[in-house]
Amino acid sequence: MRVCVLFSGGKDSCLSLLKAKEQGNEIACLLNVHSENPYSYMFHTINSEWTRLQSKALGIPLEEVRTKGEKEKELLDLENGLSIVKEKYKIEGVVSGAIASSYQYDRILKICERLNLKSITPLWRKPQVEILKSVLENKMRVMIVGVSSYPLNEEFLGRVIDERVIEELERLSEKLKLNVSGEGGEFETFVLDMPLFKKRIKIVEFEKHYKEYVGYYKIKKAVLVSK
């Protein structure tokens, strides 16, 4: 099946892309929605402009949609974008990285039904710790680029997910009911390397912004380098 991947550049969309391809789907394009609202209910915003570099690393075309990020209204922008790529790339399905959020799952499903597209959610209802461990199993290099929940402090910004990070998140989840995969917005990620990348991403310049358990790691300059 020819599919479009809803692509934020984070671990969930990259894992979903990888699994969709393993299931025999043809990845025709990526679709990134740039939201002006950093608190969008649907879309990640941190470093979303660098999905263009990830697209080059993957060798898969990227389409971009802009939205003001207003609740529910942003879904119309997504639907319009999918309608365009459906015709342009002749896609039959849409891959998304929903894990446990019924809000995202249900709304994407309804959009797909209206456009006569199949909704594909490779991570849906998977154990969240299992998803984090899949990052390591698939030799992905994933950086934490945003935090917005106590007790995730500034030290988490820029950390690459490894066994130690997973153990820390598990402990915090057990103690404070933190969403261990970050799907609730507790943290956001950016993928620097994965098996489908022809080259890896090297960050050359960045800056951190942090205040009262809310912060982000802003990529200022990045390049593709050989693996």
Quick rundown:
With 227 residues, the chain is an alpha/beta fold. The protein is built from six helices and nine strands, in the order βαβαβαβαβαβαβββ.
Structure characterization notes:
The model has no long low-confidence stretch (mean pLDDT 94). The chain starts with a strand and ends with a strand. It has 227 residues and is an alpha/beta fold. The protein is globular. It folds into two domains: 2-120, 3-Layer(aba) Sandwich (Rossmann fold); 128-225, putative n-type atp pyrophosphatase, domain 2 (Alpha-Beta Complex), CATH 3.90.1490. The strands form two sheets. A five-stranded parallel β-sheet has the order 3-2-1-4-5, with helices on both faces. A four-stranded antiparallel β-sheet has the order 7-6-9-8. It has helices spanning 11-22, 51-58, 73-89, 102-114, 128-137, 163-176, and strands spanning 2-6, 26-35, 62-67, 93-95, 118-120, 141-147, 187-193, 200-211, 214-225.
Outline the fold blueprint:
Layout (H helix, E strand, L loop, with lengths): L1 E5 L4 H12 L3 E10 L15 H8 L3 E6 L5 H17 L3 E3 L6 H13 L3 E3 L7 H10 L3 E7 L15 H14 L10 E7 L6 E12 L2 E12 L2
Parallel strand pairs: 1-2, 1-4, 2-3, 4-5
Antiparallel strand pairs: 6-7, 6-9, 8-9
Which range does the strand content fall in?
A: 25-35%
Q: What's the CATH superfamily of the largest domain, by name?
A: HUPs
Q: Give the number of helices.
A: 6
* Gross CATH architecture of the largest domain: 3-Layer(aba) Sandwich
Instruction: Provide the CATH topology of the largest domain.
Output: Rossmann fold
- Total count of domains: 2
Report the CATH C-level class of the largest domain: Alpha Beta
Number of strands: 9
Q: What structural category do the secondary elements indicate?
A: alpha/beta
